[in-house]
Amino acid sequence: MRHRVKGRKLGRTASHRRATLNELATQLLRYKKIKTTVAKAKETKKFVEPLITKAKNDNIGSRRHIAKFIKDKEVLKELFGEIVEKIGDRPGGYTRVVKLGHRLGDAAELAIVELVDYNEIHAQKKEAKDKAESKTTKSKKAPKKEEAADADVVEETKEKPKKTTKAKSTGAKKTTTAKKETKSKKSDKEDKGEDK
Length: 196
Prior knowledge:
- The chain is mainly α.
- It has a domain at 14-136: CATH 3.90.1030.10.
- The chain is built from 6 helices and 3 strands.
- The protein has helices spanning 14-31, 38-56, 60-67, 73-87, 120-136, 141-195, and strands at residues 33-37, 95-102, 109-115.
- A 3-stranded antiparallel sheet has the order 1-3-2.
- Helix 1 (14-31) crosses helix 2 (38-56).
- The radius of gyration is 33 Å and the shape is extended.
């Protein structure tokens, strides 16, 4: 039983586990999204979120504390600059773990860890939702005009298939006449070749 046992060992010694989490956190802050196993993803989330919260309080003490874990200076600058600015007033929950399925080689369960404010797909969905809501606020007269326009389009599309069927039949005739022309050209060339 694992009563009151905190965290995951990840099959590593304490020092190796610390190094792994430091590196996963660095890569997450650099690339905003990483793919790893579910256990490592959950531990990384638990490790990174307090660091980001501490980074919101931008002073020398918090910079030194975070620098113990994040060794890359460029990533530190990005964390205290761009990432903290983009997070803004979010009170927590800066990361998201999305399960992907199983890896082919060893059937390990994979997941993506990503910073919530940097996910473009979810941002696009929000924009689409906002546009849809703005369309519903229009007056009721506008949809009636659109329905009338749609009815005209339907009538026009009914006429178009008749035209396309005629074009297909004439196209077929053209190909047969083209074949006849090429055969006649070949026979003409053969006749000329015999004369020479």
